Amino acid sequence: MDATNERYRDLFRGMYTWISDLCDVEKGGAIDEIHRYWADDARIVTFGRVKAAGIEALWKHFEVFPELYEKVEVREPFYTYLEAGDRVVIEHDILIRTRDGDHVVIAGEAGREEFRVTSIFSVLDGRITEMREVAAVKAGED
Predict the structure, then answer these.
(1) What residues have CB less than 8 Å from 115, skipping those under 6 apart?
(2) What digits encode the pLDDT tens for the residues 22-52?
(3) Cα dist. 136→35, 39, 65, 117, 128 in Å?
């Protein structure tokens, strides 16, 4: 992969900002902008399982963010950002906090709120067609 190729970097910065803004109840979320970032037939695959496939399923996936999450923040700079044609690999830290004050639990470890995530994206005509999360581990020090 050519690390100097960054034609999609602004797309992903915008998409992660959009996801964060979904949690802003006062702004009313930004769900109506889903087509800006996601193709009609896009899908999200998390931990090897299809979590959402098609724009309606993506809508349902994201529309619950204001109810469930107080905060979803993807931290920059990314640890890894690589593009190869229409494939993008991003490794980043993400902070997730639920509205009820509990921390989101991934991989069965209670009390964790910050994760290192690696995702592989496919892009077509400037929109995401697939997001495949391939790893999530605790970020930072214990």
Answers:
(1) 93, 94, 96, 106, 136, 137, 138, 139
(2) 887 676 567 788 999 999 999 999 988 999 9
(3) 26, 25, 20, 5, 20
Structure tokens at 43: 């899908």
Judge whether 33 and 16 are in contact, CB under 8 Å. no
Contact 62, 95 (CB under 8 A): no
122 has which bridge partners? 87, 130
pTM of the prediction? 0.82
Report the 10 Å Cβ neighbour count for 125.
Answer: 7
Q: Strand pairing partners for 49?
A: 46
How many angstroms separate the CA atoms of 92 and 74, rounded?
7
Q: Count the alpha carbons within 13 Å of 35 in the hemisphere toward its beta carbon.
A: 3
Tokens coding 16 = 């992660």
Distances in Å between the Cα of 128 and the Cα atoms of 10, 67, 132 are 13, 24, 11
Q: Is the dihedral of CA 42, 17, 20, 82 positive or negative?
A: positive
